[in-house]
Amino acid sequence: MDWLTILTTTVHAAIGWEVVVYGLAAIGVNIHFGYTGLLNFGQAAFMAVAGYGLAVTIVVIGLPFWVGILVGLAGAVLLALLLGVPTLRLRADYLAIVTIAAAEIIRLIFRSVAFKETFGGSDGRRGFNNDFYEINPFPPGHYGIGPFGFNERTFWLLVVGWVTLAVCCAVVYLLMKSPWGRVLKAIREDEEAVRSLGKNVFSYKMQSLILGGVIGALGGFFYGLYNGSVQPDVFGTEMTFFAYTIVILGGAARVLGPVVGAMVFWVLFVFIGNFLSEAVRAGYITVITETQVGPIRYALVGLGFILLLVFRPQGIFGDKREIALDAR
Amino acid sequence: MRRAVIAFTAFLGGLIFLFAGPASAAAEGEGLKGTLTHQGQPVNGAKIVVTTEDGQPVQELTTNAQGTWEVAVPKAGKYKVTLDASTLPPNLQPRGGQNVRTPQVFEGNVSTVLFPLEAKAAPGEAPAADPSEGALFRQAAQLAFEGLNLGLIIALAALGLSLIYGTTGLTNFAHGELVTLGAVVAFMFNTGIFGWSGMPLELAALLSLIVCGAFGYFQDRFFWGRLRKRGTGVIAMMIISIGVAILLRNMIQFFFGAQNESFSDYTAQAGMELGPITVAPKNLWAMGIELFVLIVVGVALLKTRLGKAARAVSDNPALAASSGIDVDRVIRIIWTLGAAIAALAGIMLGLSQSLKFTMGQDILLLIFAGVTLGGLGTAFGALVGSIVVGVFIQVSTLWVPPELKSVGALAILIIVLLVRPQGILGRRERIG
User: Fold this and answer.
1) Which of A104, A241, A307 sits opposite B365 (nearest CB)?
2) Do A310 and B365 touch (CB under 8 A)?
3) Which residues are listed as membrane-spanning (chain A) (predicted)?
């Protein structure tokens, strides 16, 4: 058993790029689901549109990095409008089905042979993160303590990522304290009551969808920048459901819930995976093979998700009365 | 409730032992593999030559009865795979004449190499690229037939989903996994588990229906039923069903593996000419069984006491309960039935394509499309909607690339929800 590897990967997982990517996705889901009560099951599509917007602008069209970021963000806003205009009037379960279907449509188009020239088929696009690492102010080296630490590239990405996470949390905190945020929460509790007060419920829901989608899109950028590539199948429904697991784990409608949820989620996910792999390799567990460890930890995510929702739907920080589970 | 979850988990644990037999051997090392099929039928005996990038021979082999071939290669790198077109059946040729592939094999991976095949134009006939009117009609007829087959399979799954939604209000995202489970359990009985030798597919399918029906029963008895008693809302149950889907799908992958499989019977069946179309007899049988089951369930809903009770529960559970109907019992029977016909859908899907742990997940949204198109919660609507979706998907490949064929169906789903959210046969009620 290589305990040092297990320990370092687990510590890295607590602050690593996965937490940045899924934390941002989960903050978006938290705005949709936690604060507004919108069941958007298409969060992965916002991330895909952003990641591909960046990649295609740089690789295929040949425009600079910042234009790529703008294109990605504009893509996310456009997707929110396209998705929201027709669907925000629908009941919660219908909204869920429509958003998940829209996300699948987008994934299928990105991976199709017909658009291979633009989106690169199932291989996706790569080679668009050089500009990001060229503005890296950190000289080459190892940043960290002892065995824990990152090289200058990852460290740069993590610094930018965590600053982004902090800014997003601050934005959510300020917005949800404002009258605007109170209207969102009121929509979650009773849409008709808000409407009777003369508020334009549709417009508020749309703003919530756009804001959450744009924050999710930032997660899509960081995925692309860290991995150096975007592939269509990464942005499947599983990514959305991981974000939901994280939100519910951390506590819906809590500012720091998604970030803490993402850290706990990835620590457990990485630890269980590596622990089982090492135990199998060292011969302590003989019933399963190493390739079977992958499905086991995903199955555990599913089981954990069920147990959380049944026994503690408010997660770590949440308030049971604030969960939009029984709305409508 | 705690007991309920423990019992549910224990039941899943029980499935572990059921599946433990054929846990697939992990692929070791690098390799290349592929499956040669034409219109769903495997192509046997075609010669495949694998060489390294600079022409060093690695291996020559021919495809087996399932049309599959697999080669272990010494190391990661680029390889050249050539399909010998002269060893194909005389009526087939590689699409576009392209019979050479240069795949990249990554460390520890087995790369899949596919050769799309097309029918060779007979001398004197117009080439396939420029279909004459007759060829277009024949192609459309063939696709419509395949679409009808797919539509009936979707209808089976959709019927169960719709009945469960109607009686309990649950939008079950784990219904696709019930489809997969049916196919996988049948596969295991079919190919042999616990050291038993395999049994004929018919018997395996029957046993699979019983196992999956029991799974549906216990799922409601020990899990969903308990949640309903606790007063869990329908939205909460819908989100919980996603967790159930992730759990089941990965447990199936754990025992079944990530590879494609096919039943040991009826895989390679020669097609026969039937008017303008070519069909394998197994597809006719499958469609007959599907139609029969759909009609029986439909008639049972209309005529039998249980069917009437089920419809009463769908309409208004409280009123049904006050008129003496045992609502929980009705729901449990609906769950049993729903899981069993979903399993049947899985077996039929496994007959017309290959088995994979994601096969149910892949058609889940098509099932939703069928159900929504017909009207959520109406059994006959699900039937009509699913057939429309199935035929539309296949026929649309006349104009759209095959890999985008599901996009059309999903677009229909969205448009229907916007224009006529109650579906074709649904009643108008508040949906927004």
Assistant:
1) A104
2) no
3) 6-31, 38-59, 65-85, 92-110, 155-176, 209-228, 234-252, 296-311
